[in-house]
Amino acid sequence: MSNTIQRIAILGATGSIGTSTLDVITRHPGDFELHTVTAHRDVAGMERICRAHHPARAVMADPDSAAALARRLQDLDGVEVASGDQCVAAAAADPAVDTVVAAIVGAAGLASCLAAVEAGKKVLLANKEALVVAGELVMATASRTGARILPVDSEHNGVFQCLPGRADAPHGHAGLAEAGVTRLILTASGGPFRERDPATFAQIRVDEACAHPTWRMGRKISVDSATMMNKGLEVIEACRFFQCQSDQVGVVIHPQSLVHALVQYRDGSTLAQLGAPDMRTPIAHALGWPGRLDSGVAHLDITRLGQLDFLPPDGRRFPCLELARDALEAGATATAALNGANEAAVEAFIGGSLRFDRIHAVIEQTLEHMDRRGDASLDDLVDCEQWARTHAADCIRQWGVA
Ligand code: NAD
Ligand code: MG
Known about the structure:
alpha/beta; Rossmann fold; Rna Polymerase Sigma Factor, Chain: A; 3 domains; seven-stranded parallel sheet; globular; binds nicotinamide-adenine-dinucleotide; binds magnesium ion; DXP_reductoisomerase; EC 1.1.1.267; magnesium; 1-deoxy-D-xylulose-5-phosphate reductoisomerase activity
């Protein structure tokens, strides 16, 4: 690809995005060097990665897990094991690293994402919650430090690919107005319950919610896809990343998950990005940008695609989408609270203490009780996120599973 080796840190290396990233970089041994990997508690997953890829550093956010990893790697030379959230953030800012893949799930990824942006890294952003909680701050920091953030979320990566690329522009693309763009459209598969009778939503089990029809992903994002909160978070992510308003970002249901995004221009043109539903494509795009890399994903055979459907989302079936748009209108503290309440509700659903059909109600209740303000410092946003988690946890305790 080029003659300089990119030294990579993968934050959240044991997860679904982390695994896909490892797959892509091992296809290009001359272009990338894996310097750092981080994870939360998955000691076995981290041991496998260290033995297969020999990174210089492995960080476990959970200290007990770091101790366990160090014991298991006693016979392996050259891998430094570190522990704790602060080490994860420090690893993201380390001068020995050029490119940081921000693939931790949830607001837990915000501090390390910001550390990478503050240090002016090339940041491959999968962790959409970082932009939902503090997107304006993250983007403003990138403009100040010259960090280049490239979107890995497939829809945002698709939009990015349909925009005129500008290696000299702060965020890698021409501004929307400057480029003549009128509207961005994100596609959504509709998840596993697109056609299920809503009267049965109370009985939905965790394994059913995590069985996504077209993508293989971590559990949190799978549940978000089933409620369609994922698309709500992505509308917020798009507004923050591409610096536009909610009414410029449309959502369409596209069950085949082959068209990931469309961009409409002033002159009546609509550009679309297509590809198999495999995250190695957007990851390879972002790793190689402004060049292109082999990702291991086969081309679509367009003569065999069959029918492609595009339908409007059903707001009654999926109320989370509207909750996210309302929070976006209300401002930065509301989106931080939306994220906190959603993470608490999804954790409770996965843990068996909240019904699927009550996830949106917990979030709605929390947003109704918050003190909404527009601008906010990082501390305010983090406080707001925490307040929302606590409030949501109170709701969940009151409502129980019955
Ligand atoms: P995952 O659950 O498979 O992996 C999450 C990773 O984060 C793991 O390595 C885990 O150890 C680490 N982690 C979890 N909690 C942590 C904590 N408190 N501190 C430090 N590390 C922690 O998740 P995923 O599906 O790979 O998703 C990662 C991010 O990418 C999410 O924000 C998700 O929305 C986004 N994303 C994922 C996909 C996908 O296809 N999986 C697509 C688009 C965007
Ligand atoms: Mg997505």
